[in-house]
């Protein structure tokens, strides 16, 4: 994705995941906002976002962070919210092992308290190790943790899969995490 689309993706992440009020928007309970309202709010904020650019950001975002409603009238972030939304996801049985990418500087805290959502509503996990490496790399020297998601699920912890394939859960206790040696 080119630099201008990356800037637009960051704007959309801020507005649709964290701070819709910063541009005068309000998400509905499921995180949706009218596309026309979003475009008008972007214009008021001095952000040159039009419908074709928005559609390019959605289509070219490798993480598929945003989704349009079936009729194309509304948009929302697929996951990663720090504001309260109900994505309407159905609990699913996860794979036996899922992965979490982080930076090595976070290991001490994770060993003590496990994986917690921080400012977000869920802990994010991936089905493949390569994705976890890429996520960890965004935060520093990457470390991949193996989460015993099957065990957690059988113990009653719900798991969800967002529209873009990211696995979500409320938290992961340290006893269900395999840390790399060293």
Structure write-up:
A hairpin with a 5-residue loop joins strand 2 (66-68) and strand 3. It is built from six helices and nine strands. It folds into two domains: 3-77, Arc Repressor Mutant, subunit A (Orthogonal Bundle); 98-178, ADP-ribosylation fold. The longest helix has 16 residues, at 3-18. It is 32% helix and 17% strand.
Secondary-structure blueprint:
Elements: H1 3-18, E1 33-34, H2 35-44, H3 51-60, E2 66-68, E3 74-77, E4 98-103, H4 107-113, E5 123-125, H5 129-137, E6 142-147, H6 149-154, E7 160-161, E8 167-169, E9 177-178
Antiparallel strand pairs: 1-3, 2-3, 4-6, 5-8, 6-9, 7-8
Helix pairs in contact: 1-3
Which descriptors apply to this entry?
ADP-ribosylation fold; 2 domains; three-stranded antiparallel beta sheet; 6 helices
Q: What is the structure about, briefly put?
A:
With 182 residues, the protein is α+β, with helices and mostly antiparallel strands. Helices cover 32% and strands 17% of the residues.
**Text of the CATH class of the largest domain:** Alpha Beta
Overall number of domains: 2
Overall pLDDT confidence? 93
Supply the helix-strand structural class. Answer: alpha+beta
**How large is the count of helical segments?**
6
What proportion strand?
A: 15-25%
Distance between the termini: 36 Å
Major sheet: order of its strands?
A: 1-3-2
CATH architectural name of the largest domain: Alpha-Beta Barrel
* Main beta sheet strand tally, sense and closure: 3 strands, antiparallel
Helical content, roughly?
A: 25-40%
Rg value? 17 Å
Q: What ranges have pLDDT less than 50 throughout 5 or more consecutive residues?
A: none
- The best one-word shape is globular
Output the CATH topology of the largest domain: ADP-ribosylation fold
β-strand number: 9
Helix-strand pattern: HEHHEEEHEHEHEEE
């Amino acid at each position: 994705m080119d630099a201008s689309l990356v800037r637009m993706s960051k704007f959309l992440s801020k507005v649709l995941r964290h701070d819709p009020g910063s541009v005068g928007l309000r998400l509905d309970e499921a995180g949706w906002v009218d596309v026309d309202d979003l475009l008008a709010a972007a214009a008021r904020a001095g952000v040159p976002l039009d419908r074709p650019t928005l559609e390019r950001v959605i289509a070219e975002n490798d993480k598929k962070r945003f989704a349009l409603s079936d009729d194309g009238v509304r948009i929302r972030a697929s996951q990663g919210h720090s504001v309260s939304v109900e994505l309407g996801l159905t609990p699913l049985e996860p794979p036996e092992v899922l992965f979490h990418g982080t930076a090595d500087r976070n290991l001490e805290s994770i060993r003590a308290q496990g994986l917690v959502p921080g400012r977000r509503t869920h802990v994010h996990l991936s089905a493949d190790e390569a994705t976890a490496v890429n996520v960890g790399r965004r935060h520093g020297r990457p470390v991949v943790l193996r989460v015993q998601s099957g065990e957690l699920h059988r113990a009653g912890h719900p798991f969800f899969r967002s529209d873009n394939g990211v696995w979500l859960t409320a938290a992961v206790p340290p006893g269900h995490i395999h840390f790399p040696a060293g």
